[in-house]
């Protein structure tokens, strides 16, 4: 680089850049004022169109808001020979329509993320800006076509990556790396799966991909819709501000449970029952159950019209039913088609008798009481919840439908011990709700969206993958996850298997192993677990120059709570957010210890602030969250809380990799074997020792 980052004492060119920032903000305010002044009273043809137009205009006005503490632009490109573009979160133009800031998603902005000394892409200079509270304070230049200038790591980029985190997840638009940008800008036609180690930014990449696709295919996605699926509501609250900061406000967010909320979930399955109910084999059991009520007629259908009687024999009716079954249509669509098929058979007889019936006659015949009676008897209505209720309550019915698919032991495991009286009184589990959703789709097709982002996908069961896949059957999907962080007994074994269940077997799989969040020492320590939890994955590395604060300390059994409190105090002396992570059965004791020490704390998903930065986090909810400093309580208890060793160590791997700047591990019980060496009774590294952690 030609020069280090310049301080605010520099008169030029920093003052010129500040002037451009001020002018750009003024231009953005003018754009918003112009939008607010638009009169659409007499533009629309009717009130419906007027409401749609007003809604779109209101969204436009909201997107033009000037966020005072968010940089309007974060970079600049000087192209060869003489073109300059400022790169920011949204497009801003002056009164003549000339661009003052170019949207980061525009093609002209791409070299900001991908240009290098080896491939300058016609960029003579790339400038990065440093900000504090929305004020431009520094800049840093790279002359990509100057052979005399050495290629070094940007200090401003490094500082932005390592900046303390308080509040919800922030966007990474200023720090997107080339390999991340390739994923963000991948086309909409193909589906994509991103295997990302902790700290590689996979969640942020997925959200920025949504923003990019909405920019590039706005009309198409406005019509078909977009959806972000997360693991829990705490996670969704954490990420919810990223897209609005990028000017996108129309993306729906939901958990898988919310997608399949046909029945109220009030019960829990055993791990064995949940595993079986989530198995892909259940799809065939349900398919059989849905069709089990279809029967063949024993009597002919006799339609009376005026003085004439038209007879369709039972064997011909059976042929029509068998034909519909063979076509494998949705159950509801086939049921709607059956009366028309019977009516057509009647019309053929009318024509043979010399009559000339038209479509109105066929529709009338299809509504005839005799035809309706045949349909009701042979192809009964299926209520999805009632069908699943029967399947899980009636051992004989389950045995018929699961014959050759589930073993007798598996059938016993999924049956309710005490069958409920009805749908309303049933204690449905989360896995049951997915089964109801599967039946609902077998009866009538689920609506498909244009694009779905599925985050933390490694934890889904095959049946849950199918539920998400139905929501993008005619669209595309971006799957985000980490096999090593799969913390359910049914966690996916491979992305190939997961993509097959999603209905996207041809999706490309990309792997991110270069970390930008987790400190080097922390990710190296956590990666000791990989041979046991995901031996096929590459170990992640970190580009962060700072090693981070890191300590592993043993405590006497009666002193652990006190040591945890002191570690939290030490972490609070630093800037940023602090997460105290512990096993579920340890949380009451940790909460009491914090309260006795006068330390207030937040629940997961609650937004941190400068005055409240400590969050008490159950290990089961830590996935996807991040904190500047993490205090990890009793690793052995976290691992032991899960139903099997692999899942327990995967849960621990998740918890170990939530730290951005520092990690303190405290334990009274022996550490899991992979983590025990070379850390003995006490070993402390980094600044945590100086802080007394």
Q: What is the level 1 CATH name of the largest domain?
A: Alpha Beta
The CATH topology of the largest domain: Rossmann fold
Give the biggest beta sheet: 6 strands, mixed
Instruction: Kindly report the spatial arrangement of strands forming the biggest sheet.
Output: 3-4-2-1-5-6
Shape: globular
Percentage of residues in DSSP E strands: 15-25%
Keywords: ATP-binding, Helicase, Hydrolase, Nucleotide-binding
Protein name: AAA family ATPase
Organism: Streptomyces marispadix
Binding site for ATP: 196-203
Structural summary, described in words:
α1 packs antiparallel against α2 and α17 (384-393) crosses α20 (430-443). Strands 3-4-2-1-5-6 form a six-stranded mixed sheet, with helices on both faces. The protein has a six-stranded parallel sheet with strand order 9-8-12-13-7-14. Residues 1-10 and 679-693 have low confidence and may be disordered. Helices cover 41% and strands 17% of the residues. It starts with 13 loop residues before the first helix and ends with a helix. The protein folds into four domains: 13-152, no CATH class; 180-263 and 445-515, 3-Layer(aba) Sandwich (Rossmann fold), CATH 3.40.50.300; 301-378, no CATH class; 520-676, P-loop containing nucleotide triphosphate hydrolases (Rossmann fold, 3-Layer(aba) Sandwich), CATH 3.40.50.300. The protein is of the alpha/beta class and 693 residues long. β5 and β6 form a beta hairpin. The chain has 30 helices and 22 strands. The protein is globular.
